[in-house]
Amino acid sequence: MIVEDFLKNASWNRKDMISTQPLSLKDIDEIFSLADIFKASLKDDKAKLPYMKGRVVVNLFFEPSTRTRTAFEMAAHKLDADVISVVASASSSVKGETLKDTAKNIQALMADMIIVRHSCSGAAKYLADRLDIPVINAGDGAHAHPTQALLDAFTMREKFGGNFKEKKVTILGDILFSRVARSNIWLLKKLGVEITLAGPSTLVPKEFEKMGVKVCYDLPAAIADADVVMLLRIQHERQRAAYFPSISEYARVFGLNQRRQSLLKEGAFIMHPGPINRGVELDSLLADSDRSVILNQVTNGVAVRMAVMKLCMKAKYGE
Ligand code: CP
Predict the structure, then answer these.
(1) Is 189 a pocket residue for ligand 1 (Cβ < 6 Å)?
(2) Going from the N-terminus, what domains does the chain have, and what CATH number goes with each?
């Protein structure tokens, strides 16, 4: 009943979830509050919640995924929806079918929602503008990964006791090609977080300062003050040139290792959206240490995605 009451009073009216950029503080609060309810119910009860009963969700992934795809599937199952996962390499897209035709055909098959991941920035918005059913962006090129940023911020909110004010987050790594970094910058700025970007200048251009963040090339200075250090892997699949001499040099100069851990503030914690390249951007022992909340992020991904899916369904279908 608590979910019904919450939804009756919610002001959310977005059919799609494309980016964190346009979200209002009220939108963010509604996602987090509904995710709180779903997270508590996931802990207490193994039963399914009937909030998307009879609905069909199609996962349309044109790029590999472990966490995002599985979390969306689990979220849909938990909400009692039927889930179909289309693997792009085994779909008719390899025969030349366009993204729009593929998605229109899935809609014609009476799907109620599409979750899409694609290597092209703008792919999710392109579909959202052309489909009647809700579209959720599970990552589009280097542009956006909104549910990742939402689960990251939800995890920080738990650790911060709900208060983001004056908190400092350093995002370290390949910012240039990272949809996770952009989505987190848009979201965390709204929440009042002070953000520092760090990494090699080739992957962290000064232009990012226009987003209202600090750019710092001095690693000890970038991490010393942080409440959170979020590591990002090198996105080799999006890079068309060499941005640094070698992986071992990157690890030596910009990796968060045991030695640099001593520079972190007491209580500072480590985040990573995954997949981790252990020993490159993050030391393996640190990834598994008490400072790490990486697996909390993954767990929170289910409740946050349940909330996003349910709110978008309500906006479209009124239920
Ligand atoms: N964080 C993330 O998007 O991981 P996957 O690529 O495994 O989905």
Answers:
(1) no
(2) 2-145+300-317 (3.40.50.1370), 147-297 (3.40.50.1370)
